[in-house]
Amino acid sequence: MKPVKKTQQDRSAHVMHDADSNDAEEEVVTSVAALIGILLTGLLYLVLPPDVIIGPNWLLLVVEVVFVVPLVIDVMTAWDLPHTARRMLVLVPLGVSTLALVVGVALFILTLPTDTHATNLLRAAALLWTFNILVFALWYWEVDGGGPWKRHLSGHRATDFLFPQQAAGEHWVPHFLDYLFLAFTGATALSPAETYPLTRLAKVLMMLEAVLSLTVAGILIARAVNLLG
After folding, report:
1. What is the pLDDT confidence band of residue 190, given thresholds at 50, 70 and 90?
2. pLDDT (average), residues 116-144
3. pTM for this one?
4. Treating both helix axes as pointing N-terminal to C-terminal, what angle do 59-76 and 83-111 enclose, rounded to 10 degrees?
5. Measuring CA to CA, which residue among 162, 176, 104 is closest to residue 134?
6. DSSP strand E in the chain: where?
7. Closest CA to 112 of 220, 207, 196
8. Dihedral, 11, 17, 18, 20 alpha carbons, nearest 10
9. What are the C-alpha distances in Å from 59 to residues 73, 82, 216?
10. Is residue 192 within 8 Å of 185, Cβ to Cβ?
């Protein structure tokens, strides 16, 4: 009987090791997705029309690369950055991207009366709208539960946002795509579709995203009607 018990213990340990390994792989995959999301905001800024940006269009991408490179090294190698350093390397470029988004929307409003080219207006609006979704998806990813690392330690319990799988009591891990979907529904429906904000910070972020999205879409529609008239 003793060898049987030992075999069962070995199998249990092997299963636990596999589960931990899978969790670690999922964390790496979702972290890489978030890093790609950060770089995409820089690429979007790179192709924004000159009327809605301040300074060179490559500036945001350069700032993001400077902060993202240490994160990529941390994800891909055995280099273990402190949690505070990781958060700062994400939050600083994210804050810069948010500022660039707000300035872009403000310039879009100010330059609208003088821009009579429908193609330019549609291009600027579409890029700013997509920029808005990516920026707030990254905010939701980084804010919920104190960030991905703390969410992992807490067993991915619902903290700032309640996903339907969590409401059903499942052990479910939200990935970056889930926060991207949350940001997409917030920018299109201007309200949460299936995931609900639980904290004041989450509610403020969702309100800001909705206001920016509504401003871009509403002003664009109003200008289009004016041009047609």
Report:
1. confident
2. 89
3. 0.83
4. 160
5. 176
6. 161-162, 196-197
7. 220
8. 150
9. 22, 27, 23
10. yes
Q: Residue 162 pairs with which residues in a beta bridge?
A: 196
Note the pLDDT of residue 35. 85
Which residues lie below 8 Å from residue 155, measured CB to CB, with a gap of 6+?
A: 171
pLDDT computed for residue 16 by the predictor: 37
Nearest Cα neighbor of 46 from 54, 58, 64 is 58
Give the residue from 131, 144, 169 showing the smallest Cα distance to 37.
Answer: 131
Q: What's the pLDDT at 6?
A: 39
Burial (CB < 10 A; 0-12, 13-18, 19+), residue 141, is buried
Pairwise CA distance, residues 4 & 6, whole Å: 5
Amino acid identity, position 26: E
Q: 95 and 72 in contact (C-beta within 8 Å)? A: no
Contact status, residue 69 vs residue 89, Cβ threshold 8 Å: no
Which 8-state DSSP code applies to residue 155?
Answer: T
Cα 43 from Cα 46, distance rounded (Å): 5
Cβ-Cβ contacts under 8 Å for 153 (sequence gap 6 or more)? none
